[in-house]
Write a structure and sequence with these properties.
This protein is an alpha/beta fold. The chain has 2 domains: 115 residues, Periplasmic binding protein-like II (D-Maltodextrin-Binding Protein, domain 2, 3-Layer(aba) Sandwich), CATH 3.40.190.10; 85 residues, Periplasmic binding protein-like II (D-Maltodextrin-Binding Protein, domain 2), CATH 3.40.190. Helices cover 30% and strands 32% of the residues. The longest helix is centred in the N-terminal third of the chain and has 12 residues. It is elongated. The model has no long low-confidence stretch (mean pLDDT 96). The protein binds adenosine-5'-triphosphate and 1-O-pyrophosphono-5-O-phosphono-alpha-D-ribofuranose (PRP). Adenosine-5'-triphosphate (ATP) binds next to helix 1 and helix 3.
Length: 206
Amino acid sequence: MLHIALAKGRIARKVMKSLSDGGYQFPDYSDDSRKLIFTDKEGRIRVTLVKSPDVAVYVRRGAADAGIVGKDVLMEDGEEDVYEILDLGIGKCRMAVSGIKGKRDVMNKRILTVASKYPSIARKYFAGRFQPIDIIKLNGSVELAPLVGLSDVIVDIVETGTTLRENGLEAYDYFMDFSARLICNKVSFKMKQDELNQFIQVVKKD
Ligand SMILES: Nc1ncnc2c1ncn2[C@@H]1O[C@H](COP(=O)(O)OP(=O)(O)OP(=O)(O)O)[C@@H](O)[C@H]1O
Ligand SMILES: O=P(O)(O)OC[C@H]1O[C@H](OP(=O)(O)OP(=O)(O)O)[C@H](O)[C@@H]1O
């Protein structure tokens, strides 16, 4: 049986739909269920739903043979000791530096205060521009930070741009594109090739 760890949220919902379209039946799965582990009717796949930053942990340690997670998360947390084998083309988004609409001059400040769920990616971006920053790690609703004076700018993902727009913010610079990736345990890659290939045929976007 192939063990798959999915980032729970939009990625899991999309992948479970692809699996169901591809003939895998998970009778006890629904998008709003609180259950965390599912086995398909024929006993071919076991799916576990985990928080995005934990997907690579399960895969690296062999608790899952493979996992699906956003490239943004892999880049932020490092992706050593697992193989990244496929770009699934789902969960597309971009990383941007954003701030209050019409105030992009703030980027010229000597030391910029930056709020982000992605401190490592933010640090690398500003280091590349030789811009000194003071980084504030947040865990969500990052768009609030410039609005209440917690930070000058934010570094966060943008998909539709709705969250920026509805909060009077704008992207000053888009600097990276992301999508969901299939990662694989190095031993499973050798030992479960056939099962993995079958899984890939079902989840990969044409
Ligand atoms: N608008 C968006 N918001 C969040 N993540 C997005 C968005 N668009 C694309 N993504 C991608 O999807 C991934 C997040 O999906 P995931 O299934 O982990 O959680 P989620 O949908 O944010 O749910 P939750 O916040 O409940 O964990 C991100 O890492 C990113 O790669
Ligand atoms: O461009 P949009 O389509 O508006 O999407 C981008 C927003 O979605 C994500 O937040 P999420 O929904 O994960 O909530 P969070 O801020 O609490 O992490 C991201 O951090 C942005 O806030």
